[in-house]
């Protein structure tokens, strides 16, 4: 096995940053050697900087406890230590956009969990099993940035990863219209029940910016590269509602879909069962063996029971039935901080490494 690539985690003290640190413990390709956060955390050990705000159920890895946290703007210092970085900072979008571009221009590849650069025309926004061909745009991005190895790649919004994979497997039947309601966990807001007692016994029918992302980002995922740009698809028409529910982890989606050529139920189930992508072909460390699974029980998938399917990296689907207004309806479930956030970004990095886009600094 090649020597492990050296990784930095920007925003490492936050919820998603903690997920990155946890997932990367003993990773076969990557090793966390640098953690950066705001200036108030800089100079402390990671253990000191996090303090009593460790939000995960598993313990903080021993290997990172004594790492001295750097300021995220110490780019020249971080550059000396890392081959690439994951970005999970919690800042205004314009500041994140500028920060990620500074890292890329400093020849540090950035794999981002943030939304700031998702809709930039030459930045790939990838679900690895669906549109890894968008990595080809990286060469055009490097030319724009004037870099040799620095670039930005992003993962999509956590909510779309519950239902877009299920829809993607059905694209051959011609999808015209999609109506989705998502029921999203509080960890998507970086919260636990301890942080947010107001959510207990409550539902909030609004998540700022989430519906726009949920309607537009799938079209970029399904887009095509033309003239050194990713041109978003124009169909299907997607309309969404995004609702915050009192669940720790896991985003559930209720999906209604109309086709140009209505398939049979058996054809849909076969399409889901047979679907796989490049990560499965390459047997990447974080790749689920069975990406999409259909559950026959009428009351599944359930968030509490099924979010950890395939180590939180698989998608569970259930309740497929014909609909009197649309053609079919079904529900989907994904783990929002694993497949939807840090885990999805790590899988993206694994695929970028396998395809030769991430390399050790010479």
UniProtKB/TrEMBL annotation:
<keyword id="KW-0560">Oxidoreductase</keyword>
<dbReference type="GO" id="GO:0004073">
    <property type="term" value="F:aspartate-semialdehyde dehydrogenase activity"/>
</dbReference>
<dbReference type="InterPro" id="IPR012280">
    <property type="entry name" value="Semialdhyde_DH_dimer_dom"/>
</dbReference>
<dbReference type="GO" id="GO:0009086">
    <property type="term" value="P:methionine biosynthetic process"/>
</dbReference>
<comment type="similarity">
    <text>Belongs to the aspartate-semialdehyde dehydrogenase family.</text>
</comment>
<dbReference type="InterPro" id="IPR036291">
    <property type="entry name" value="NAD(P)-bd_dom_sf"/>
</dbReference>
<dbReference type="GO" id="GO:0046983">
    <property type="term" value="F:protein dimerization activity"/>
</dbReference>
<dbReference type="GO" id="GO:0009088">
    <property type="term" value="P:threonine biosynthetic process"/>
</dbReference>
<dbReference type="GO" id="GO:0050661">
    <property type="term" value="F:NADP binding"/>
</dbReference>
<dbReference type="Pfam" id="PF01118">
    <property type="entry name" value="Semialdhyde_dh"/>
</dbReference>
<dbReference type="Pfam" id="PF02774">
    <property type="entry name" value="Semialdhyde_dhC"/>
</dbReference>
<feature type="active site" description="Acyl-thioester intermediate">
    <location>
        <position position="158"/>
    </location>
</feature>
<dbReference type="InterPro" id="IPR051823">
    <property type="entry name" value="ASADH-related"/>
</dbReference>
<feature type="active site" description="Proton acceptor">
    <location>
        <position position="251"/>
    </location>
</feature>
<dbReference type="GO" id="GO:0051287">
    <property type="term" value="F:NAD binding"/>
</dbReference>
<feature type="domain" description="Semialdehyde dehydrogenase NAD-binding">
    <location>
        <begin position="6"/>
        <end position="138"/>
    </location>
</feature>
<protein>
    <submittedName>
        <fullName>Aspartate-semialdehyde dehydrogenase</fullName>
        <ecNumber>1.2.1.11</ecNumber>
    </submittedName>
</protein>
<keyword id="KW-0521">NADP</keyword>
<dbReference type="InterPro" id="IPR005676">
    <property type="entry name" value="Asp_semi-ald_DH_pep-lack"/>
</dbReference>
<dbReference type="InterPro" id="IPR000534">
    <property type="entry name" value="Semialdehyde_DH_NAD-bd"/>
</dbReference>
């Amino acid at each position: 096995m090649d020597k492990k690539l050296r990784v930095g985690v920007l925003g490492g003290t936050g919820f998603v940053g903690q997920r990155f640190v946890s997932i990367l413990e003993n990773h076969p390709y990557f090793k966390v050697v640098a953690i950066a956060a705001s200036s108030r955390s800089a100079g402390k050990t990671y253990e000191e900087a996090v303090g009593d705000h460790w939000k995960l159920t598993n313990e903080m890895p021993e290997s990172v406890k004594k790492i001295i946290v750097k300021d995220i703007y110490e780019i020249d210092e971080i550059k000396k230590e890392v081959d690439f970085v994951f970005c999970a900072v919690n800042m205004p979008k314009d500041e994140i956009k500028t920060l990620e571009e500074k890292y890329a221009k400093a020849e540090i590849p950035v794999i981002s969990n943030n939304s700031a650069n998702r809709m930039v025309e030459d930045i790939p926004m990838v679900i690895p099993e669906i549109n890894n061909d968008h990595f080809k745009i990286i060469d055009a991005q490097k030319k724009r940035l004037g870099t040799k190895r620095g670039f930005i790649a992003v993962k999509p919004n956590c909510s779309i990863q519950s239902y877009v994979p299920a829809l993607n497997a059905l694209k051959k039947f011609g999808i015209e219209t999609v109506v989705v309601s998502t029921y999203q966990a509080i960890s998507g807001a970086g919260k636990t029940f301890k942080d947010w007692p107001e959510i207990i016994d409550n539902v909030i029918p609004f998540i700022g910016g989430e519906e726009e992302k949920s309607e537009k980002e799938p079209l970029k995922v399904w887009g095509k590269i033309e003239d050194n740009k990713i041109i978003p698809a124009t169909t299907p028409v997607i309309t969404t509602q995004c609702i915050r529910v009192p669940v720790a982890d896991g985003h559930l989606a209720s999906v209604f879909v109309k086709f140009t050529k209505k398939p049979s139920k058996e054809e849909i189930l076969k399409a889901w069962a047979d679907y796989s992508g490049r990560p499965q072909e390459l047997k990447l460390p974080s790749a689920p063996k069975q990406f999409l699974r259909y559950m026959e029980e009428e009351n599944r998938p359930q968030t509490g029971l099924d979010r950890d399917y395939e180590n939180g990296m698989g998608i569970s689907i259930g309740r497929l039935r014909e609909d009197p207004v649309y053609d079919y309806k079904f529900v989907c479930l994904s783990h929002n901080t694993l497949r939807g956030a840090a885990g999805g970004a790590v899988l993206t990095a694994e695929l970028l490494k396998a395809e030769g886009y991430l390399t050790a600094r010479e």
